[in-house]
Amino acid sequence: MRTVRRVSAALTVPLIAASLACPAGAVVVPEPVGGSLLAGHGVIEVTTPGVPAAPKIDASSWIIADVDTGQVLAAKDPHGQYLPASALKTLTSITLIPKLNRSDLIQPSQQTCDVEGTKVGMTPKLKYRADDLFKAMLLMSANDAALAVASTGNGLKATLDAMNAEARRLQADDTLAASPNGLDVDLGLNLHTQHTSAYDLALFLKQGLKLPDFKDYISTVNAKFPIPVPAPKKGQKKSSTTTTTEPIYSHDRLLPGEPYAYRGMIGGKNGYTVHAGQTFVGAARRNGHTIVISLMHGEVLWESAVKLLDWGFAADGKVKPVGTLVDAVGTHQATAPASPGSAGAGAGRSAAAKPGTSMMVMAAGAGGGVILLAGILFLVRRRRTPAVDGPPPPVTVTSPPPPADPGPFTPEALPGDPPLVRFEPFGAPEPFSAPESSGAPDPGPAAPGDLPPWEQPNRK
Question: What is the pTM of this model?
Fold first, then answer.
């Protein structure tokens, strides 16, 4: 068997030098979440006789995993940080679905109704059930619906804090959310202020599959959304009701009856903006196993997703895994980290700088001297699970204390005419002090590929 890894040999020499030169010192060697092999930026797989090589697809990053066993079967730059586009709505959903009842009523503001991109078409004159908003958000990727559910309770900022806290709880350390819907340049966001990874998207979907409502939403092909009854034309009788419905349809082309219908498909969430490219995370179940795939910064979406799923089912149980999908830490959502732009946010991301940046390793010697070693070409993330390819050398890992519990989420009561939702404008992002993320090149303008008319450039 042969392991395909894009790992620089420059990592090993400085660490050995530090160990020999300073045996009495402590060397901190962080490892990526999910296993040491997942630090690679290229294709990561263990070739096995009788199993074809992992598929070649037009995407900068992807992952294939079995969520039942937790095994990552193959990946490409799994911890590379990229713009998420609408795939970020998976994090928004798994954060808010446990906090809201399906029957909760939410009244949007005019600003919410006027948000950029794909919209279901809301009005501040109506109150919408959370159930309908989640359907619009996860089926047709409605940005107005996502903003409406995110603006409940204590407001948009509190929701973004909760999203980032949930990402930390799931050990999705590549993620920084600055919007509930994944829009980027529309909101003045970039890789400094918003990003995630293929690995983290898989963690989000893994968590989502544990939530019956989330699983129901992503499996739904079509639904009905409430709209106001049009004013009667001259001579027509006024309707006795104030609302009617219109159909909405899923953007997931792998669901039953869709052009790329995939056998056993559970569902997923796709996204697209010019700068993010095609993004997707989805799951299918066959023969007692659930395969989760995700891809980022892609060019062709549905054909690529089918190739990843096909390989996953063909290779599952036959290849040596290259990593694991880690479990959440704790059973409740932790206090969110400082918002982007604050000193706390910059400090929080400094320990999870993108792979590809240089790093200094310091070891304290027996005589109190300090050896400073430079030249490691990439920084991998804090070790969470044992390495798949054997036990690592002894290391000292320092972890921050767990954040405090923020307490229960309590949506505001409905006093009547005043709307439940209070929109907090995004505004221009504050200066953000975190290191640049992932090193993903600016893709520039990208062809919309097989996007439907409602999901054209810079729209999701």
Answer: 0.70
